[in-house]
Amino acid sequence: MRITVMTPDEQILSLDVDPNETVENLKALLEVESMVPLQQQKLLYNGREMKNSEKLSALGVKDEDLIMMVSGAAPSSSAPTDDLSFNPDGSAVNPGAFQQHIRRDPNLIGQLFQADPELAQAVVGNDLNKLQEILRLRHQRRAEMRRQEDDELALLHADPFDVEAQKKIEAAIRQKGIDENWAAALEYNPEAFARVVMLYVDMEVNGVPLKAFVDSGAQSTIISKSCAERCGLLRLLDQRYKGIAHGVGQSEILGRIHVAQIKIGNIFYHCSFLVLDSPNMEFLFGLDMLRKHQCIIDLKENVLRVGGGEVSVPFLQEKDIPSRFLDEERYSKQASSSGAAPTTGTTENKTNLQSGGQSSGGARGDVTPGSDFEAKVAKLVELGFAREMVVEALKLCDGNEEQAAGILFGGF
Known about the structure:
The chain is an alpha+beta fold. The protein has 4 domains: about 1-140, Phosphatidylinositol 3-kinase Catalytic Subunit, Chain A, domain 1 (Ubiquitin-like (UB roll)), CATH 3.10.20; about 160-195; about 200-335, Acid Proteases (Cathepsin D, subunit A, domain 1, Beta Barrel), CATH 2.40.70; about 355-410, Helicase, Ruva Protein, domain 3, CATH 1.10.8. Helix content is about 35%, strand content about 20%. It is built from 13 helices and 18 strands. A 6-stranded mixed beta barrel has the order 6-7-12-8-11-10. Helix 4 packs antiparallel against helix 5 (about 115-125). Keywords: Aspartyl protease, Cytoplasm, Hydrolase, Protease, Protein transport, Transport.
């Protein structure tokens, strides 16, 4: 096994030793490596002095453990021996002395940054509580590894015909595979453990600048009531389109704003959106408008291309996104998601966006959605129109696909 020894002259030695080696033989090896006479060595493990006759395995020393070497001579007043020992929980008895002991040698700090960057940062920092917490965590981690090794060893000697033992062996094998997969991910795919920042771009809605959350998994473009009011659009709210948005959870649809002007880059576009009573979500640029304006989410260049590429705007970096927006994607899924869509009125259809409003000429909704109706909707949606607009046009035309297309191209 490999152990790490920190010497009095602030060197870090990495040694390969046998677990059954005695402490006296370890000191002899350290005498060669550190030039410290065996009689002047005092080795501390978890705050306890290691006796010459004891074996490393009997003391509980495991792979990658840390052992402190202090001089056996009379301790100096500036750094008493006890100050460099450890408590049973792994924390330093005197964290300030432990910190200064390592800080005095820049080479030692450099080696520690390579071996354990997190611990090195705590040593050079000013937060002793954080340093103690890291030392405790290291101790707990080593203790957990020891327990796992002991359990595995016990299972190896378990009765092969014991059903419960076999279940534990199976669980241990499965957990080992998971741990190996996790270790491989840390090495080959470390970015998977980092936070993924969602996609935001700068836009203007009716002349008001805001940061839009781009979400291709949301069926509809959504604006909150407060944001619509700030943009001066609440007066255009059509309350005939009230309903409930079903997704991960649900939110109330207050109505619909049929058309408004948005500015992306230097180009103006027409946009329609649902208005939700969702204070945690300001503006979501959904799949309906992404398709209508032929947008391309270019993650290689980290830009949103609109109009087939006529304008490109960069996605915002995390530092440019207000902290209150960082959890916005969670709330957006309560409004709309790719697997569920808003339903309105009394219609309980959770896979299609249905408008429950009525026109001045009478009630809409005489066309019952079916496979033929859905095929017509799919055709018109492929032309770049929003699904809800297609559904409304088909209803107005009693399912006539050509008439509905004429209405849509004519500016429905």
